[in-house]
Each structure stands twice: as structure tokens, then as C-alpha cells.
Amino acid sequence: MKKDINKIINQLVEDHKWLEKTAMKYLEETKVYYVDNKVEYEKYIIPFLRILEEELLMPHFKFEEETIFPLLHGDPLIDELGDEHRDVKDLLNKFRTSQGGIEVLEELLHLLDRHVKKEDEKLSSKLHELTKKSDFLQNNTIS
Ligand SMILES: [Fe+2]
Ligand SMILES: [Fe+2]
Predict the structure, then answer these.
(1) Is residue 12 within 8 Å of residue 119, measured between CB atoms?
(2) Which residues surround ligand 1, an ion (CB under 5 A)?
(3) 33: which residues sit within 8 A by CB, 6+ positions away?
(4) Closest-lying ligand to the alpha carbon of 16?
(5) How is the chain classified by DSSP, letter by letter?
(6) I need a surface site. Which of 50, 67, 100, 138 has the fewest CB within 10 A?
(7) 0.70 exceeded by pTM
């Protein structure tokens, strides 16, 4: 399926909306229960994090790494974002395997928040710049 850069930007924005308005919001609102009832909380939140990772985060990271990052190959921002993807995976794993408590979950939420904002501002504007290069659009097909 052929997609142009505007479609790619739209997908980026849509995925981020889901992530911020559903998953991160839910984690932010429920994390207070950790303090009073760690065992019960983990019973629900660990399967939730697994679904979040498998159904939303990993497909989203894959989309960015395979479709978006190659368009901006060589840009230092791409290395930075790739490192942050790895840090997100590490933190998810750390929390799930009980190697860290609520601090790890909070660190994960802060990282995701910063990461998504950075992509919405810097990555999107770099993609918009690409669309302005008309010869790029004329001579390239992104699949
Ligand atoms: Fe990302
Ligand atoms: Fe993203």
C-alpha cells in the first residue's frame, strides 16, 4: 500500500492521541492505588501493560522505525528517538518483572510523555519540511 507523507503524519498523530488520551491517562489515574494495594493493583496493571505493549506500543514503534526513521536517516533526532524506544521497552520489562515499583511506572510515564511531545513537535515538523520538497514527493514512493 502506497502512502504519502501526509498520511504518515496523520497516523503518527492518531497513534499518539490513543496513547495519551487512553493508555497514559488510565495509568496516570490509577497509579494512586499502588500505594494502598500493591498486589491487587499489579494483578490488573501488569496484564494491561502487556496488552498496551503488544497491541499499541510495539506496532507503533515498528511503524516509526521502519517507515518514518528511514526518511530522516542521518538526523541525530532519529538516534535519540530510537534510544528512547529502547528505554521504554526496558522500563516496561523492569516493572512487569517486579524489578521496580511505582517509581519505574512513573519514570515510564514521564518518558512516554516527553517522547510523544518531542515527536509531535520535532519529528512532525521535519516530516512537514519533507512534504515541501516537491521533487521528493515526485520522485519517491513510500510503501
Ligand atoms: Fe517513538
Ligand atoms: Fe510515537
Answers:
(1) yes
(2) 64
(3) 40, 41
(4) 2
(5) --B-HHHHHHHHHHHHHHIIIIIIHHHHHHTTHHHH-HHHHHHHHHHHHHHIIIIIIHHHHHHIIIIIGGGGTT-HHHHHHHHHHHHHHHHHHHHHTTSS-HHHHHHHHHHHHHHHHHIIIIIHHHHHHHHH-HHHHHH--B-
(6) 138
(7) yes
Distance CA 92, CA 56 (A): 13
Task: Kindly report the length of the chain.
Answer: 143
Residue range 9-67, pLDDT digits in tens: 999 999 999 999 999 999 999 998 888 898 888 888 999 999 999 999 999 999 999 99
Q: Which residues surround ligand 2, an ion (CB under 5 A)?
A: 119
| Ligand with smallest separation from the Cα of 15 | 2
Considering every ligand atom shown, identify the ligand nearest to the alpha carbon of residue 18 and give its number. Answer: 2
